[in-house]
Amino acid sequence: MECMIRPTVLNDAEQIFQNLFVKSDLGSVSEQLVKDVEKMKMGEFIRCVAVCNGRIVGQVEFTIPESPIKKHLVEMSGMVVMGEYQGKQISSRLWEFGAEWAKSKGVRMLLSL
After folding, report:
1. pLDDT digits (tens, 9 = 90+) for 80-102
2. For residue 110, what pLDDT band results from cuts at 50, 70 and 90?
3. Mean pLDDT confidence for 1-24
4. Over the stretch 27-52, which tens digit does the pLDDT of each residue have?
5. Which DSSP string do the residues of 62-84 spell out, in sequence order?
6. Number of domains in the chain
7. Taking Cα atoms as reference points, which of 33, 28, 72, 65 lies closest to residue 49?
8. DSSP secondary structure code for residue 105 in this structure
9. d(Cα 49, Cα 37) in Å, to the nearest integer?
10. CA dist 72 to 5, 66, 67, Å?
11. Which CATH number fits the domain that encloses residue 39?
12. Which of 10, 26, 55, 70 is the most exposed, having the fewest neighbouring CB atoms within 10 Å of its CB?
């Protein structure tokens, strides 16, 4: 199984909806993704996806808090991996991607929310 972790892009909305957030609706997922991609441009947030064989199978978000006393932290939230891909190290790879992103931002600690 060939998988990669990458930052999400606007074109991911349909697969994120279909594969990960089926109880939501495509419009809401698309709207949130637009906001998230804009936040990613600011450099204090990243949403990344796991793509296996061309299919989005997982996602997670990492945020550097706005509070000046928490700038040494990155908060992880929204970890989701499709059932059939659980137990295949997808969540570990998503976590590692976030840890590398945090390190590139000079952050020393990751927190799971």
Report:
1. 999 999 999 999 999 999 999 98
2. low
3. 91
4. 999 999 999 999 999 988 999 999 99
5. EE--SSGGGTTEEEEEEEEE-GG
6. 1
7. 33
8. T
9. 13
10. 24, 11, 10
11. 3.40.630.30
12. 10
Q: Is 12 helix (H, G, I), strand (E, B) or coil?
A: helix
Is residue 92 a contact partner of residue 56, using CB atoms and an 8 Å limit?
A: no
CA distances from 57 to 19, 20, 52, 85, 101 (A): 7, 7, 7, 7, 20
User: 9 pLDDT exceeds 90?
Assistant: yes
Helices marked H in 6-89 — which ranges? 13-19, 26-42
The pLDDT value recorded for residue 15 is: 92
Q: Is the dihedral of CA 29, 5, 93, 61 positive or negative?
A: negative
Predicted local confidence at residue 113, as pLDDT: 57
Task: Please state the separation of Cα 21 from the chain's center in Å.
Answer: 13
Whole domain around residue 73: which residue ranges? 3-112
> What's the pLDDT at 74?
87
Residue at 113: amino acid letter: L
* Residue 3: per-residue pLDDT: 93
Q: How far is CA 72 from the centre of its chain?
A: 19
